[in-house]
Model the fold of this input.
Amino acid sequence: MNKRKREYLSLLEYIDIGILVIDYKDRLTMSNELGKDFFDFDNEWKNQDYQNYIYNLDVRKLIEQVKLTKEDKKKQIVLKVDTVQKIVEVSAIYIPIDSKRYLIMLMLRDLTAQKEVEKKQLDFVGNLSHEIKTPITAITGFSETLLDGALNDKEVSKQFIEIIHDESTKLSNLVDDMITISRLNEHENLNIELVNIFKLVKDTLQLFSHEIEKKRLNVRIEIDEELSLYCDKLKLKHIITNLIQNAIRYNLENGEIKIKVQNDKKNEWVFVISDTGIGISDEDKERIFERFYRVDKSHSKAVGGTGLGLAVVKESVDALSGRIKVKSQINKGTTFYVILPRFKAR
Ligand code: ADP
Done:
């Protein structure tokens, strides 16, 4: 009997649901630690009237309803725990003992984290629909105008078709970033291989050579050509591509980009990229890694941004168990530090 009792009690402590039992005289007879935390119990709680400890009116009402109807009830309740508002699913269960006596068992499940995830997903879909809607409206509008007769004016139609082209490129970039983000979340295993960092940087810069020339940027790579490190090449590529793209986008004409690797720590190495661009304020630094966050929406849109680039970077860095830091001064420039663990050969 004793062994079984111990088993029950430890089960109650390990379960991540708060459990309280109230008897037919409204006395608190049992609680696990989590249950006590929900209502901030002191050491005197045992056999005390539950109303001395449970102040939340919704929970009280639920208990009284179950006493009255003798039927189980469940409700989502906003509960203040240690000054923090939590969303808690409270189930009240009626357990008859004999014709007069009964117990009420309360089970409390904290749904706050789950609700936050749900809210983020909803926000994400909302933002995404907005981002998609804008270019589609432009494409539809301008193509309709063309069909309605603007085609006859060669100068105007060229202008409109250029807009349609730009907007569809934006849509296409957005979809590419979305695909990258959804793949990143698949939690697939890392694919660790030896990567020549210099070559990866060089190849990435090649992709943007047109933009670099157009802005007459001076790019300096301070990486040993022979430097190879073990890493997940695809994730590293996402990181490097997006950071280089931003260093170009948010740079000024004749600006500079410096890319280097700090390779002196035993367990880590650091990819560093600096630019002499518009910079990021302290306030915005906190938020730039959020999906769809852009400091200056009109500027970012004009340079073709989707607001997803740094989210891809952050999620890739997380997947590699790394960290990312940013130092920046408005109108002086920005430096991103990507600190990555040294992986070993498989
Ligand atoms: P976007 O596709 O708009 O560039 P990102 O997620 O890559 O989106 O970046 C988010 C925002 O952070 C950008 O809109 C820009 O305002 C700011 N930002 C990112 N990189 C830099 C940088 N190197 N210099 C200045 N601002 C930057």
Notes: The chain has a mean pLDDT of 92.
